[in-house]
Amino acid sequence: MDHYLYLLLFAGAAYLIGSISTAIITCRLMGLQDPRNTGSHNPGATNVLRHGGKKAAIITLLGDMLKGLIPVLIAVQFQLEPLGVALVGLCALLGHVFPVYYGFKGGKGVATYFGVILAIDWQVGLIALVIWLAVAVLLKVSSLSALVSIFATPFILWYFTHSIILTTACAVMSIIVFWRHKTNIQFLLQGTEGKIGTDKK
Questions:
Q1: What is the 3-state secondary structure (H, E, C) of 34-94?
Q2: What is the pLDDT of residue 198?
Q3: 196 lies in a domain?
Q4: 182 in a domain, yes or no?
Q5: Does residue 201 lie within any of the structural domains?
Q6: What is the pLDDT of residues 38-75, one digit of tens each?
């Protein structure tokens, strides 16, 4: 029972940390419009970039990544087994997507996802980020670059770790992020998805 309580405490803390909205806090502190009320209405770095500029977007991106990175690194430091590490990472992402502080309406989870993966295996995280950056530079479409990278990541993680538990958790997180991008996927199929740095009504 103590072991399961231990896991529950880690998972709960990860969820609460993930629920902190870097985008909303950053925009508030910088005197910018609430990202939930403008553009795509998504409290994430891409929407903040469109209406708040690069500085606010970078702060948002780093903050959202740290929400996934720090809880998982702590779990690894405390030598939680793979199931515990996977649970902590999943809860951090769920916190970002369904934040308790903001009526369970959060962001799409891309940066937090990458933070979790970097903490699980830095090589896999780095490869995932390189894929994201390469697609973003070539096609200038943030959602597509994220989706391509996140689709590939579970396969890359399996190649490096051969861990069924970690790969399954990664695949579940990928499905959640894909589900949060369902509107973007529709726009991509219609050819109307916005480019990076352009205003999106």
A1: CHHHCCCCCCCHHHHHHHHCHHHHHHHHHHHHHHHHHHHHHHHHCCCCHHHHHHHHHHHHH
A2: 57
A3: no
A4: yes
A5: no
A6: 888 899 998 998 888 999 999 999 999 999 999 999 99
